[in-house]
Amino acid sequence: MWRSCPYDLKTGLIAGHVPTSRHLSDLPTAFADAAAYRRMLDGGDPLLYQVTQVEENNGPGQLHYGLGVLHPGKVGDEYFMTKGHLHAWRPAAEVYVGLAGRGVMLLEDERSGESALVALEQNTVVYVPGYTAHRTINTGNEPLVYWGILGSEAGHDYGTVGARNFRQVVVEIDGSPVMMERTEYLRRIDQ
Ligand code: NI
User: How far is the CA of 71 from the centre of ligand 1 (A)?
Assistant: First the structure.
């Protein structure tokens, strides 16, 4: 019960725990550029990320935590990203701790629709308040590795984000990550 658990920054794995793997085909609605998505899928089904969740302790005051490793790459102009989610119990906040690589978190307040892009990388910590959809995005050339730590009551709601998606996309323009309205980006790539 009282023990420390080694983890590996290179592989993003925690000793004794099995990761969940997400491939490109597991994110059918996340990427805006449907043609680029299909082209990449035709060429294979790359591993986008792995998350190793530790959810052994449950009940009031208990914590869950997970180690994420998100690989670098792009679908069209959009960087590799996680599915993103809200917490099933909406008031639940979460802390993300950047360990390696370079990336951002896309945050969207479910109540106001407001969005923000914040850095997630080594030596950064991000507080994700309740009611906030959050997605991790690798904007660098190395795996992005991070901890997510949250209350055991939080739970995950992937369905809401999967169905209506984030309003903003994060795309590379002139070599830099830019947040833009999904509808605006779709207009651009149609041209
Ligand atoms: Ni979360």
Answer: 19
pTM over 0.70: yes
Successive 10-residue mean pLDDT values, the chain, 191 residues = 88 92 96 97 97 95 97 98 98 98 98 97 97 98 97 96 94 96 95 53
Here the CATH number for the domain that contains residue 153 is 2.60.120.10
pLDDT at 191: 53
* 170 contacts 137 by C-beta, under 8 angstroms: yes
Q: How far is the CA of 185 from the centre of ligand 1 (A)?
A: 26
Decide if 129 is inside a domain: yes
Distance (Å) from CA 18 to ligand 1 centroid: 19
User: What was the pLDDT predicted at 180?
Assistant: 97
Burial 121-142 (b: 16+ CB within 10 A, else e): beebebebebbbbbbbbbbbee
Q: Given this model, what pLDDT does residue 73 score?
A: 98
Whether 1 is in a domain gets the answer no
Give the tokens for residue 44: 């294979």
CB neighbours of residue 72 within 10 Å: 16
- For ligand 1, the distance from its centroid to the CA atom of residue 45, given in whole angstroms, is 25
Cα-to-centroid distance, 176 and ligand 1 (Å)? 26
Q: Distance from the CA of 34 to the center of ligand 1, in angstroms? A: 26
